[in-house]
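User: Before I run my own analysis I want an independent prediction to cross-check against. Here's the chain; please return only the structure tokens and, at the end, one sentence I can use as a sanity check.
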Amino acid sequence: MLNNLIFSLNATLPVFLLMVLGMFLRRVGLLTEDFAGKMNSFVFKVSLPVLLFYDSAKNNFLSFFDGSYVLFCFFATAIEIAVSFFFAHFMKDRSEKGEFIQACFRSSAALLGVVFAENIYGDTKILPLMILGAVPLYNIMSVVILQIYQPDRVQAPAAAAGEDGTKASSAGGLDRALVKQTLKGIVTNPIILGILAGLLWSLFRLPLPAILDRTCDYVGRVASPLGLLALGAQFDFRAAAKDLKPALFASFMKLFGFAAVILPIAIHMGFLGEKLVSLIIMAGSPTTVTAFVMAKGFGHKGTLSASCVMLTTVISTFSLTLWVFLARTHGWL
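Assistant: Structure tokens:
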């Protein structure tokens, strides 16, 4: 039992400590909010795609591809979105429904998935399968939901591309321009492109020259520490105190509710080991910072999104430790 707890803490505490270091560096002035934002952009547009390309390219794609697992991730995400819609129905403030729904289902799937997979198994070869199943649906539904519940009085400016590569459009209905923009955001998503390039490289069994191998290794290796430092540096405790009641409920669903339903089903279907780790991240990781960026871009206040990001990031240190500990204790990892 003690060994399993130590194993779980070894997987989760480094994540928390790096975010704390980022907060400390911001406080002492060594990291500014602007620089942290640029670090975050570099991680999601360069370092993380290179890492996912590298881990996919150097492994035999056919040996680990599992179509049933990709479909499971897709339908599990669809169920999360549907349940979030259901609970949003009971909210009195319509202007917060879009933020609430997005905060419930949208995970930090890429960055934290990489960190956990590396901490536990040393590589991320299974993670791209989860990303392919879940992230495109994250992107599409986030745009649709935020557009449906967009405050009528606000014209939404274009939002900066985040982890998913999507951007917000101006206020109005779901038109062809919005659909085109959403699809463009998906097909030009650096993370998706990195995964697809790596899978094709592996499928055609192309060699990785020593120079390319070493370069990808160097660039990809900084993805986790830089991303976590940037996340910590952008953290604002004051935001977590706003919209506390809906934020607490959304945070509970994000970290505990969905995982409590999805993980037992996954285990019953035989998705264990690395696949289960990726599903723990998909179902129980913090709300991604991109949720806040997208909400603001569509004219929402962003307060509820920011509160959920802050709360889930703090609480996930304990919740993810719990899920990993339970899985390890029962021999599923």
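Sanity check: Residues 56 and 168 are 31 Å apart (CA to CA).
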